[in-house]
Amino acid sequence: MEKRQDAASLQSILAERMTPPGHPNAPRTARPRKRRPPGPGRPPHPKTVDGPLRLYGVHAVEAALRNSERTIHRLLMTENAENRLRAALDQRQLAPERVSPRDLDRLLGPDTVHQGVLIETEPLREPSLADLASTADAGPLVVLDHVTDPHNVGAILRSCAVFGASGLIMTRRHSPPLDAALAKSASGALELIPVALEQNLARALAELKDLGFLSLGLDDAAETLIEDEPFAGRVALVLGAEGKGLRELTRTSCDRLCRIGTRGPIASLNVSNAAAIALHLAAWRRRAM
Questions:
Q1: How far is the C-alpha of 68 from the C-alpha of 46, rounded, in Å?
Q2: What is the pLDDT of residues 157-166, one digit of tens each?
């Protein structure tokens, strides 16, 4: 009986420490942590919960552990996850708190695929457009116009990492938070690809033009094929949300519009698939130069 009470007490403590206020499972006595003021430079990406940012999943957490720019406050792992991430833990000299899969199920919900690991962390510091431009000779930038699905954005980030994009730009509103769902879909790419959030996308495209970028908007109705683009110099690939596509102001702010050549009965692609094809083509063209 005492062992059962001890186990129940441990789970209660974990829930009190990890569950943010306002969550359905949050205890009434839970209080938000006091946060340290941000350091110099642009502020971190905004949070979507009252408390530290959470990341889970083996690949997302391993990438966060290997990212020296990522500040980690707390790390919870099962024994199996700790064994899988031993090298990354040793690199950061971190000792995780041991929990059971059931503990994490209780904290995150039974349908969450946490793979036995959860961390509390600070958001990454946000780069400016000038920061992204400083590395843009290595690969194109990807600009997303009101793409709100975190799984799509995560998949796009992964394609950015695979095909050598220099960065991702999204609107500050009408974009998914850079948290657990997106990070898990990105499979570690959130730690590798810098993400800038801009208040006004048309103004950001104008600034990119001043920085020497050619903005290519992907539009199903465009006459020009993206396969005919040379991808010479600095290029920003602009993609819109599924269904709606590019907004009118974004469309007119692009230097050119183009479409992916298709032959089948369906003429449009999922936005993450379209991004992957465009990035692969850009990488192939640059390789041939």
A1: 20
A2: 999 999 999 9
